Amino acid sequence: YPDYVLKSEGNNIMVHIDNLEEYISLVVDATVKTGIMPQIEAFRAGFNQVFSLSSLQIFTESELESLLCGGRELWAAQSLVDQIKFDHGYTSNSPSIVNLLEILGEFTPEQQGAFLRFVTGAPRLPPGGLAALNPKLTIVRKHSTGANGGIKGTAQATDRDLPSVMTCANYLKLPPYSCKEVMRERLMYAITEGQGSFDLS
């Protein structure tokens, strides 16, 4: 941005080794301090109209982060069956659901976060965790499409299909894979490749 004046005296700064630190300091100030003050003040004024900023002083930083951004805690494996809805061909006792719950329970925190982003579009759960999702996380049976050269309805075709989601409804469409290992591989592929994309919906 050549028109942006970093220093009040003089329009341009000729950068050289003797004033490099000053130049870097001025650029940092312009990009994260004084340069964005009008936007910060507009945000504060707008937020203050909705919720008084002085009232927020009763909360700690971590409480505010949890209220505004959701919680960092994800889920405990033993509570998953009570916090998820199963429909359209699946029950909590379906072999595919048993496999899925085992896989989700084995996920690392990073994998749980990636799964959450894939299914809900959000990086964090709301306060109250998975049980507080609205609408509730729902897992339904996805019938084989016969894509990728498979014969529709066969186990081979099903194992080639990817799970898909409707993030606005917290809805996971899960094919009935032949085994847990195939499910884990297809689920991880969809989660990894589907980040930030609506191609798998």
UniProtKB/TrEMBL annotation:
The keyword Cytoplasm does not apply. This is HECT-type E3 ubiquitin transferase. Its EC number is 2.3.2.26. The lineage of its organism: Eukaryota, Viridiplantae, Streptophyta, Embryophyta, Tracheophyta. Keywords: Transferase, Ubl conjugation pathway. InterPro entries: HECT_dom, Hect_E3_ubiquitin_ligase, HECTD1/TRIP12-like. It comes from Picea sitchensis (Sitka spruce). SMART domains: HECTc (SM00119). Residues 6-201 form the HECT domain.
